[in-house]
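We treat protein structure as text, and this decision shapes the records that our systems exchange. The remainder of this section carries one protein's record, kept here as part of the documentation:
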Amino acid sequence: MNNISPEQVNELIKNRRSIFPKSYTEKPIPKAIIEQVLENANWAPTHKLTEPWRFKVFRGEAKNQLGVLLADLYKNNTPAEKFKEMKFNKTSKKAKQSDTIIAICMQRDPKESLPEWEEVAAVGCAVQNMYLTCSAYDIGAYWSSPGTIKYLNKPLGLNEGERCLGLFYMGYHQMPKIEGMRRPIGEKVVWME
């Protein structure tokens, strides 16, 4: 018997929002909650049980160093004519504003027993579980996938077949409730009866 009502599930899903680091407070997230966020990610659907999600958790000084690394990667890999000082500064500032940053990584099935897109989708489902868990704990979160993630595999110490798919920023926040905006589902569905 399930103790969660359909209404509670509907409310949690409809009220989930991306909350950005500039809105985070300095209140620390207990390690036990971060562990629960990751445990819930681990229960995402996964075809052939490949469980392709991998995570690197950054807190404290390691998190600040990650911010510096991301800013440097942006600076070193952006042509001078496209470089923006504001973006460079914002990149490291986002890390400092966050309590925790989780690198979202994927381990490709070594046997390639299923298409890669299915493993990417499984990681996406794991991140949705992370988002929903953060929402339930009133923790702000957002999945960032800057162009520099393609340069993170080596600094993150990823194994062969692994790659970084983005960064999940987390922090308590004081944002007011944000109303969602979606076009009606009827515009996106064709019933075949």
Summary: The longest helix spans residues 116-136. The chain has one domain: 6-188.
